[in-house]
Write a structure and sequence with these properties.
With 306 residues, this protein is α+β, with helices and mostly antiparallel strands. The chain folds into two domains: 8-149, no CATH class; 157-255. The protein is 43% helix and 11% strand. It contains ten helices and seven strands. The chain has helices at residues 8-18, 24-40, 58-65, 77-97, 108-119, 126-149, 172-182, 194-200, 246-255, 271-281, and strands at residues 45-47, 71-73, 157-159, 165-168, 204-210, 216-223, 230-234. The strands form two sheets. It has a five-stranded antiparallel sheet with strand order 3-4-5-6-7, with helices on both faces. It has a two-stranded antiparallel sheet with strand order 1-2. β5 and β6 form a beta hairpin. α1 (8-18) runs antiparallel to α2 and α4 crosses α5 (108-119). The protein starts with 7 loop residues before the first helix and ends in a 25-residue tail after the last helix. 24% of the residues are buried.
């Protein structure tokens, strides 16, 4: 679209999307190609109305008066999402290229290919850049899945008296599967999010209670190290669990979590107040409050004989 009144929203969109790319050369190249692609996409424009010319420059008013086609930028969420997706994949490609080949000897060729692509990104058009970025973003996703599947702590099982079993969750991938099973926010966790990061860095331990048949009953998160208290305990669909639950207390005794203290009794009232309360609770002894005495009925003595 050549006759567009103001294309600054499109430039701002490309700028925001490129901000997530750490490599400045790659970010600038993406921004240039993104602006060119946005200007060629007719979904980003609509015909100008007379109300759009109020603050328009003089050349736009003259073009409108001469009957020339004139357009203004409109927001298109699909196009904006596409730009941010390609930028995110380029950022992930930069992460692949920054990996030390000695740390991943089986992926030396992949790392070298990512570095070569970024080095020659000035020769690529937008479609080639998006396709290559998708390829290396999938590589990084596969690496992260491998990392999240690694066991962080040894597997443990605690068999309870009722036949139920506590199993310790040993990896972020297992924690995510538990979240899917229980239908809670653990299904979206990763090694960089709240719960997954706590597990990865050893600052929390997670346990799942199952029946002998394998049915999940509750998930417990305890502090570590050491185990001082249970931070969160939930059942399926985030159902609440009482802190004095028998199965939870057995797990606490096994891992070193102390049971919750008994509830504190209410304080004793002062002696004067206690005597007044006791007196108020006693029944009144006055004659008005006492039940009236009624003489029992007597049978009449008659001369009749049975």
């Amino acid at each position: 679209m050549t006759n567009a009144i103001d294309i600054s929203p499109l430039r701002a969109l490309a700028k925001r999307a490129s901000a997530r790319i750490a490599d400045q050369i790659v970010a600038q190249r993406f921004e240039t190609l993104a602006i060119a692609r946005l200007l060629r996409d007719s979904r980003n424009f609509r015909p100008a109305r007379p109300s759009d010319l109020t603050h328009a420059p003089q050349w736009a008013k003259d073009a409108y008066d001469n009957g020339e086609p004139l357009h203004v930028v409109r927001n298109n969420r699909a196009v904006a999402a596409r730009m941010h997706t390609v930028a995110r994949r380029l950022a992930e490609t930069c992460k692949v290229a920054s990996v030390d080949p000695m740390a991943r000897p089986d992926d030396v060729e992949t790392i070298a290919g990512a570095r070569k692509f970024l080095r020659k990104i000035g020769n690529a058009n937008f479609d080639v850049m998006a396709r290559k970025a998708l390829q290396y973003a999938r590589v990084l996703e596969h690496w992260e899945e491998q990392t999240e599947a690694l066991a962080i702590c040894p597997a443990q099982s605690i068999v309870l008296l009722g036949g139920r079993i506590w199993h310790r969750i040993t990896s972020v991938a297992a924690l995510r599967r538990i979240g899917v099973e229980f239908g809670n926010c653990l299904a979206r966790t990763s090694r960089t999010s709240a719960y997954g990061a706590l597990l990865m860095h050893g600052r929390a331990q997670f346990w799942v209670l199952r029946t002998v048949a394998g049915e999940g009953l509750m998930v417990a998160m305890a502090s570590a190290p050491p185990s001082v208290q249970f931070t969160e305990v939930k059942g399926p669909r985030n159902a609440p669990v009482r802190p004095d639950h028998a199965d939870l207390q057995q797990l606490g005794l096994a891992i070193g979590v102390r049971p919750p203290p008994p509830p504190t009794p209410p304080p004793e009232p002062p002696p004067g107040i206690a005597a007044a309360v006791l007196t108020a609770r006693m029944p009144c002894q006055c004659s008005l409050c006492q039940p009236q005495y009624r003489r029992p009925l007597r049978l009449r003595r008659t001369s009749a004989t049975p």
